Amino acid sequence: MDNNNNPAYNAGGRAYSKFKRLVTGLKTHLSSDELQKLRSVVKKALSENVYRKDEKTGSITDLTVSTSIILMEELGLKSASVIALILYRPVVHKTLTEDEVKKLFGRDIADIVSGLIKVNTLEMNGTAIMSDNYIKLLISLAEDMRVILIKIADRLHKIRCAEKYSDQYRLQLAVEASYLYTPLAHKLGLYNIKTELEDLHLKYTDREAYDYILGKLSESKDTRDKYITEFIAPIDAKLKETGLKYDIKGRVKSISSIHNKLKKQKIEFESVYDLFAIRIILDSDPEKEKAECWQAYSIVADMYTPNPKRLKDWLSIPKSNGYESLHTTVMGPRSRWVEVQIRTRRMDEIAERGLAAHWKYKGVKSQSKMDDWLSGLREMLENKNLDSSEKIENFKMDLYDDEIYVFTPKGDLHKLPYGATILDFAFAIHSRIGSACVSGKVNGKNVSIRHKLQNGDQIEIVTSPNQSPKQDWLGFVITSKAKNKIRQSLKEEANKQVEIAKEMLKRRVKNRKIEINESIMMRMIKKLGFKTMTDFYIKIADESLDINSVIDQYQELEKKENESHDRHEAVSAENYVPQNPDAVKESQAKEGLILDKDLTGVDYKLAKCCNPIYGDEIFGFVSSQGIKIHRKNCPNARDMFSRFAYRLIPARWSGKSGSTYTVTLRVTGNDDISIINNLTSIISKEQGINMRSISIDSNDGLFHGSVSVTLNNTDMLNGLVKKLKTVKGIKEVNRLS
C-alpha cells in the first residue's frame, strides 16, 4: 500500500514534522541520549495514534507542541516540564508506563507526569467551583509547582484558539481561566499571561464591551503615541547625559483593566486618564541595580512632579512572588497623571516570566518561598474543619492580597496582606500566640487587637492565658491562617458544647419516658428556624433554648403528624405519576436546544435576570422549574458555569423571529426636554417597535432614563440603539439585563 495516500500515515507524518520543530528548542537542554530516548517514545506513540484528534480541542499534536513552546519561550522552563508534557499522552494511552518513564527519564519527570494525570482526571470529571472535586484539583495542583505552570500554559493555548471551539466549551474555558488560572498566574508573577487571560475572558463573556474598548484604543492611538513621545523626550535626554544603558517605552494598559475601571468608577472611556504607563529598563550590573534605579527615579522626579502617595518601592523589599520594581506617578504635560515603572533587565524578565525567571536568577532561595506557600495552601485545603466555600475564599485571599512589611521587637521582617490587624500578626507568629492575644504595642503605643497595621510598624504582642478565640474575631482578621485557626478553635469548642447539650437532652427525654422519632425531631428543629443540628444544640448548651420547651414542642408535633397520618387516604400506584422536572432527552442535551423549533415535552422559559431576545447568544440551564434560557453575558452566567456546569445545555435560535420581546434601555444625556422629545419621536417612527414605558430622573444637568420597548430581535434592537446614540446631547445608551 502507498503510505502517501494513507490519511493516518500523513497525519502521523505531519505530527512528527511538528514535533521535530520542538526538538530544535530542546536540543540546548537535552543530551543526545535523552533526545534519542524521547524520539523513540514519540515515534511509538504516533504509530499507535496516541496524539489523536480530540472532540473538544481538535489536534492533540498541535496542543502538545504549542503548549511546550509556551513553556519554553514564554515561561523559560527547561527540559523536565516539556518532556513530562510530551510523555503525558503516551502514559495515559498506556503505550508507556509510569515505571518506564522513571527508568528512562528519572523520578523527577515521572512525578510531573503523575501530577498531570491526577489533575486532568479531576478536570475531565466536570469539576465545578465550590465542589469537593474542585478542592481536590487545587490540592493536586499544589503538589508540584511545575504542574501548575504546565496547566497555565495549556489553558493559555486553548483560550488563544477558543474561536474554533464550541460556544459552550469556549465559555467554560473563559470561566475556569478567570476562577483558577488567572489568579494562579498572578501569584506566580506571570503578569503578561495573567493580563492576556483576563482580556480573553472578557472577550468571550462580554464581546460587546471588549470590542468597544478595543475600538476606542484604536481611535485614540495617534494622540496617545504623540503624548508618550512628548512625555519621554526630556527624560530620555537627561538619562543619556548620565551614561546609563537603558530602554524607555510606553505600554498601553490592558483592555480588562480599562473595563474594570469604567465599571468601578462609572465613567466614560474619555475620562480614563491613565491609559498607559512608561517603563524605563536599565542594563545594570547586579551590585549597581538599586542605586541606578533610584538615580533614574530622581531624573523623572526632576522633570515632572511626583505624587508622594503613589510611590511603590518593591526594590528594597520585593513582593513574595519575586517582583522587583519602582513605581511612581507623576504630573505630565497638560496636567495628566502618568505612571512610570523603573526596573533593571533582570527585574523585567522576572516580571515577564515570573517564577521560572526567578529560579534562573536566584535558584533555590526563591523556589523555597513558593514551596512554603504551596505547603500552607495544601494545609489549608486539606483542613477538614473548613467547608468548600471557606476554602475557596481563603485560596483567593492568598492569591490576590497586596502586601505590607512589619517588624518584631527584635527587627525580624514579616510580610502581611494590606489591611492586616494586630491579631493577624499574632497568628502569623504562632497559633498559640494568636489564640491568647489580648492587645498589642505598635511603635511603643498600646493598641487593640483590631488595630490595622501600616508599612514599617514594629509590633509587640500582649497575651493572656485566660483569652480564647471569639466569633467576632472573624469579622476583622483578613489572613487565611488567622481565619482558619479561629474557625478551627470555635468548631472544637462548639463540638464540646454540642456533646454536652446532646447528653442533657438525652437525660431529660429519658426522665420523661419519651421515645424520640428522629425524623419528627429533625422537622421540629427545622420548624424552629435552625439550619443545622449544631446550631440547635449550641442554643441548648448556652441555655437560650429551654429543653423542656423543646420536648413539649416535639410532643405536640408528633401528635399532629400521627393524627394527620390516620386521616390520609392511600393513593393507587396506578394513578401515581412521578415528577421529574430535570428530565431532558439525552440527544437534546448533547446537540443543544433549538428554540422555536421541535421542543415537544421540554418546558423552557426565558430567564428574567437577563431577558434574552431572538438573536442573543444563549444557553440553557436545567432547573427544578424546567429549562431557563439565559444570555451568555447574563450577570449570573459566570456563577452558573463555575458551579453547575453539568446542568448547562447549548442553545440557539431557529428560523425567523415570530415573537415580541420586552427590552429596557438605560439612556443618559443632557437634561433637555427636546432630547426626550427626540427619543420618543425616533422610537415611535421605528417599524415593529413599540414603546411601553419611560421614566426620567434628572440631577446636576443630566437625565437618566429607563425606556421599555417591545421588538422582535437583536437586529432591531441594535438599529434602535444606534439611532438613539446619534441624538445630540445623548451620552450613553445601554441595554439593561
Helical content (DSSP H or I, runs of 4+): 40-55%
- Radius of gyration from the alpha-carbon trace, in angstroms: 31 Å
CATH topology (level 3) name of the largest domain = Hypothetical protein af1432
Distance between the termini: 61 Å
How many helices? The count is 28
Number of domains: 6
Q: Beta fraction of the residues?
A: 15-25%
Pairing-aware structural class of the strands and helices?
Answer: alpha+beta
Q: Can you give the mean pLDDT?
A: 79
Supply the CATH class of the largest domain.
Mainly Alpha
Q: Which residues sit in consecutive blocks of at least 5 with pLDDT less than 50?
A: 1-12, 362-366, 568-590
What is the CATH architecture term of the largest domain? Orthogonal Bundle
Looking at CATH, the homologous superfamily of the largest domain is Hypothetical protein af1432
Write down how many β-strands occur, each being a DSSP E stretch of 2 or more residues: 20
The biggest sheet, with number of strands, parallel, antiparallel or mixed sense and barrel status, is: 6 strands, mixed
Plain-language structure description:
It is built from 28 helices and 20 strands. It is of the alpha+beta class and 737 residues long. It folds into six domains: 158 residues, Hypothetical protein af1432 (Orthogonal Bundle); 150 residues, 2-Layer Sandwich (Beta Polymerase, domain 2); 122 residues, Beta-grasp domain (Ubiquitin-like (UB roll)), CATH 3.10.20.30; 76 residues, no CATH class; 68 residues, no CATH class; 75 residues, ACT domain (Alpha-Beta Plaits). The strands form five sheets. Strands 1, 2, 3, 4, 5 and 6 form a six-stranded mixed beta sheet that branches. Helix 8 crosses helix 9. The longest helix has 32 residues.
